[in-house]
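Re-run with default settings, no changes from the original entry. Doing this only to confirm the output is reproducible before filing.
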Amino acid sequence: MQRHLWGARLYRDDSDPIAAAIHTGWIRGEWDETVNVEMLDPRIAAPNEPNDAEETLLKIPTAPVAPPPDMDLHITLLILPAIEEYFSTCEYGITSRKSTGYDGLSFMIHKMQWVDEGYGVRGQERGAAALKRRLDAGNALVSLLTGERPFRQMNGTAKLHA
């Protein structure tokens, strides 16, 4: 298994954000039954506040939050300049890697929130190109249903025809 995590609390921009969230103590990682979780880090088994998984977390919780079933996680990252050295530490059952001389950016976790985005949007692509594809598909559907062309293309985007 490769470890795609460089740093401690402040990570290289090519680090895995989920691994960073586990390593920093925001969320609890999963291990199979061959691993004694209590041997990894005593803070993993510490009790949480009852509402830690329900609210937007603006700071690291007292103990890592177990991911609620059937919910998605939004992680807000703070993008920062690179630093001279990213240190290796073992936290919450994950050991990060050391790195020096990296010329990319850094990030740290700013906040996180568990959300129920509903069945219709799970796995849906994000970003401007994906949004444009969804708008174009909606435009085509309206055209098919009404027999008209209520939208027109201007500069590559659909505009409502008044």
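Residues 81 and 159 are 39 Å apart (CA to CA). The two ends are 57 Å apart (CA to CA).
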